[in-house]
Write a structure and sequence with these properties.
Layout lengths: L7 E5 L2 E5 L3 E7 L5 E7 L14 H28 L7 H31 L6 H23 L3 H22 L5 H4 L10 H17 L6 H10 L1 H17 L4 H17 L5 H25 L2
Antiparallel strand pairs: 1-2, 2-3, 3-4
Helix pairs in contact: 1-8, 2-3, 2-7, 3-6, 4-10, 6-8, 6-9
Length: 298
């Protein structure tokens, strides 16, 4: 039996992106109240045989998330800028902003915990295992605090509402109910395949991976934190995929609970217009997939 496809996506500026089997749809709410919906086909690498192979698919999924997610955010930023009468933002500036953001993310979530542990905790303990555990706990603490702080920003709160709308739409689709606002709004803003849950898994897996790496010098510890990020992401992806496929198992539910709880920070209850944006994006990729399936059977 063929494995069922799991739709998913992310919130963007004033909208939602949904990824299907064959394409991507981005639905952005314009200041005039209309939805700007664009679609694009997926590159072969994102849907080929390698995309289904354990661990290799994690690498491809990581690349896909970075590329498609960033492109979707940049598109929504351009739509917002154009509709508000602003000049089109140069692509180089937008990609430069993304690169700086990624660098700051690595510094905040990997370098700061490392140096905090090195200079504030290591002088008082001799166990490398305990040192790594404290570093991991500091990393988790920074992550949670970061989410709480940015959730206070009005524009981010709106993005989090679109995030909630995306989850509601996917949950409703997976439940088999009609994709209309009244039906979708009854569903939860939490979802097992959420990026927030994935990032929490990354933070936990990092504790175990870094514990296995000899770290005789500070420079080796710094290099390991950067070089092992893709490895940690791939392992975390497999764990998340397994958890999502066995989400009805009681043990799995307990293990997934912390990641789902964090979604209380990164999602908010959306209004009808935000749910409509999520539904429109989901409907577009479903339409693309149905057309592709029909072509394959004729």
């Amino acid at each position: 039996m063929a494995e069922s496809f799991h739709y998913g996506g992310q919130a963007v500026i004033e909208g939602v992106m949904i990824r299907g089997k064959e394409g991507v749809a981005i639905s952005v709410r314009q200041p005039n109240g209309q939805l700007n919906v664009v679609t694009q086909p997926l590159a072969g690498i994102y849907k080929g045989r390698l995309r289904k192979m354990p661990f290799i698919r994690g690498i491809i999924a990581l690349i896909e998330t970075l590329v498609l997610g960033t492109q979707s955010l940049l598109h929504s930023a351009q739509v917002a800028a154009a509709e508000e009468g602003g000049e089109k933002i140069p692509t180089a500036v937008l990609w430069g902003t993304v690169a700086v953001s990624l660098a700051l993310g690595v510094a905040l979530f990997f370098m700061v915990p490392l140096f905090a542990t090195r200079y504030l905790i290591d002088p008082y303990i001799e166990s490398a295992l305990l040192s790594n555990l404290f570093e991991g706990l500091i990393r988790i603490g920074i992550f949670v605090a970061y989410l709480k702080l940015i959730s206070l920003i009005p524009d981010i709160r709106k993005v989090f509402a679109y995030h909630g709308a995306e989850h509601k739409a996917v949950n409703a689709f997976e439940a088999g109910v009609p994709l209309d606002v009244e039906s979708v709004k009854r569903y939860s803003t939490a979802h097992a395949r959420c990026g927030t849950a994935f990032l929490f898994i990354v933070l936990i897996v990092a504790i175990f991976v870094f514990a296995l790496v000899p770290q005789p010098t500070l420079w080796m510890r710094i290099l390991s934190r950067i070089a092992l990020i893709p490895v940690i992401a791939v392992i975390s992806y497999e764990i998340m995929k397994f958890g999502a496929s066995h989400s009805k198992n009681r043990v799995v539910q307990i293990l997934l609970a912390p990641g789902l709880l964090l979604q209380a920070i990164t999602t908010r209850e959306p209004d009808d217009s935000q749910i409509e944006a999520a539904i429109s994006a989901l409907n577009e990729v479903i339409k693309i997939d149905q057309t592709a399936d029909s072509s394959c059977t004729t």
